[in-house]
Amino acid sequence: MYNIFFRATYLSLYLGFTCVYLLPEISAEKNTLKFVQAIWRHGDRAPKYKPYPADKYDESFWPRGWSQLTNKGMQEMKELGAYFREHYTKEFISPVFKRDEVYLKSSNADRALVSAQAFLNGLFPPTEDQEFFEPGLNWQPIPVHASASEESDPLLKPTSFRCPAYKRLKTKAAEGVEAELSSKYIEFFEYLKPIVQAKGPKVRLREVTKLIDIEREILHNLSQPDWVFKNWPQYSNKTTLDIVLELRHIERTAEFNETSLFFLTSGLLLGDWLDRIEAISRGELVKPKKMMLYSSHDGTIQGLLYALQTAEGYKIPYASCLIMELHEKQGYFFVELYYRTPTTTNTLGYNMEQLVIKGCVKSCPLDKFMLLLRANALFKTENLYQLLFLAL
Asked: Is 145 a catalytic site residue?
């Protein structure tokens, strides 16, 4: 019902005409680039809390406290900024920060704000061409624009936004996922019952998936009990931690993989991106002139990938980044999407994948791009509030 209601509201924007598109592959060049929009998940962080009650690693083991960015997270984000510097400052943006060219907006979460600062240190390190405000300091202050509180930020923290309609849909989806997984992994859940100290007669899925933060502890060289590495022959011989990570991915994906879910969580951000590139194609002046950046969270990117019809169950690791490039060649506009993720090793490497939206090609003509995605987008915050009111 919700699916029909929400999609019907925006399908009317373009139904009533048909177009036939021939979609040749266009090779983008640096000198065809007109605008860049990018959003990343914050870098590596401390857990939000202890993953299970008897865990010996309390907040004292995390120097900056629960949920705060770690040194590894700061390094990841600085490396991402350095990639943008290498890739975009030679022929597109100035190597020195110019506020009319680049704008960075962050959610109001500490980990996102600090990630933004570390990114900017990689993108715009002080140069000899600038006046140093403190000689010898390899850092300069650059504006990071914070959004509203997490509970009132539908753009960059939609999973925390107070949306009754989304909460109902999410709860319904979660109930279905929990019923399926608790039945499939009944032995596994029973084994973990004393470890997670289940609050009810049955172990809840969320009690199990909270254990994912054990992975954070391992990456920070904190030793673990044997049960974490126990192999389960009935589950393809995976370890306890492997299964927990798999269950959490399924649980998280279920929050966005239906039309109404990603429409409510990411329609506004998609509309923001589409509105901007369409304005540029019409020759309108936009601010900033060249690059719009967002420091955000895994749920924000997960929902956006689904709204862009490219999701395919992607995982969203720390410091992963989704990039949209608008190109123009001989008056012809086209869009390219890239998804950059860190390597799984401790080295600061990365993988880069060019994404293709369903129904188009890698270098997707802008008019086709808009036609395919407009129904998934909201173009004003007021439209979101109107839908929420009607759905009550």
From this structure: no
